[in-house]
Every structure is written in structure tokens, then in C-alpha cells.
Amino acid sequence: MKIVLASASPRRRQLLEEAGYQVTCIVSGAEEIEDHSFSPAELALENAARKAGIVAGNSPEDTVIAADTVVWKGGRFFGKPSDMEDAFRMLKELVGHTHEVVTGVAIHFPGGKITTFAESSLVTFHELSDDGIRRYLASIHPLDKAGAYAAQDDDGSIIKMIEGSVTNVIGLPVERVREMLGL
Questions:
Q1: C-alpha distances in angstroms, 102 versus 24, 111, 147?
Q2: Which of 28, 43, 45, 157 suits a disulfide with 51, CB 3.0-4.6 Å?
Q3: Catalytic residues, which ones?
């Protein structure tokens, strides 16, 4: 099945390709909101719907998938860090604790049918020293990742345990996407 992914995310593209889909990426250019009055699921779904709507409007004959992932702990969102100090601050707050990762997904089918869902996983981090956090950040590119970490590259150095979908934590709950696509 051919999919148009409304994203430039190499992780989302790889997950879909590994699941057997032919993927074309089109960046939506949608402005993501950061409204902290929303629940994690509401925020992720709103941003996913914005992305999918723009791309589907230009590709009405294609199946278009868009996603948005948010990291949430203690009533706070942890978005993409603005710089390395912001990434350090985020990880300092997350290490040694459990947080929630919610991905909102919007799928536009040819003919106008739209389906949306949100998937939630719990992620527990190991305790890390300040030096351990800095070493970890130096080993990845955290600035394009919600929460400043990369689950797909983790060898157990930061993630102690994931409850729920691992692909959700990476950025796209492929198991659920397959269900929604009827496969």
C-alpha cells in the first residue's frame, strides 16, 4: 500500500517502510500549537489533524498519515528543546522517573474518510548523573525530539522500561496504524 506521510521525520518513514508500506513524504508546513490547556491526547491529535488536513487537501486521492508526539510528566509538556541547555534541563527532570508519551495520528483516506486516534505509552528512565546526561546528549541529536531523547537509538542507557507500544515512543504507533488501515 502506498502512503503519503505528512512529515519529514526519518523515524516515522522508517517505521512505515519496515511495516511494508511504500512511503512518500510531504512536509505540511502546518503551524503546531503548544496550548497547555489541552490534554496530551487533545494536543497531539490537533497537531496531527492540522498536518494531515493540509497534505490531504493537495493529495485527495492518496492515503495521508500525519502524527504528532508529545511527552508529558507532572502536568507539563516536554516539547522539542530549543538548545542543548534546554535539552539538558528536560532530561534532568525526566531521569529517574516515569513519563507519558502520547502520539496523535490522523489518517485521511481517498474519498474523504478521516480517522484519528491517540496512543499512550509510559516510559521510565534510569537515574543518570549530570555527566551521564551530557554524555547521552552528545551521543544523539536531541533538538528535533520531543523530550530530548531518542528511543530508537537507546541501548538501555537512558530507558529503563517502556509500558505500551515501543513504536509509539519512537513517533508512530505502527501496530495501531495497521489496524486503522484495515491490515
A1: 24, 28, 12
A2: 28
A3: 68
